[in-house]
Amino acid sequence: MPLLVMKFGGTSVADLARIRNAAEKVKREVERGYDVIVIVSAMSGKTNELVGWVEQTSPLFDAREYDAVVSSGENVTAGLMALTLQEMDVPARSWQGWQVPIRTTSQHSAARFLEIPRENLDAKFAEGFKVAVVAGFQGVSPEGRITTLGRGGSDTTAVAFAAAFAAERCDIYTDVDGVYTTDPRIASKARKLEKIAYEEMLELASLGAKVLQTRSVELAMRYKVKLRVLSSFEDTDETSGTLVCDEEDIMESKVVSGVAYSRDEAKMTLVTVEDRPGVAAAIFGPLAEAGVNVDMIVQNISEKDYGSHPGSVTDMTFSCPINQVARARKALEDAKAAGSIVYDELVVDTEVAKVSVVGIGMRSHAGVASTMFQALAADGVNIKVIATSEIKISVLIDRKYMELAVQALHDAFALETAN
Ligand code: ADP
Ligand code: ASP
Ligand code: MG
Question: Which of 375, 361, 373, 360 is nearest to 410 (CA)?
Answer without folding.
Answer: 375
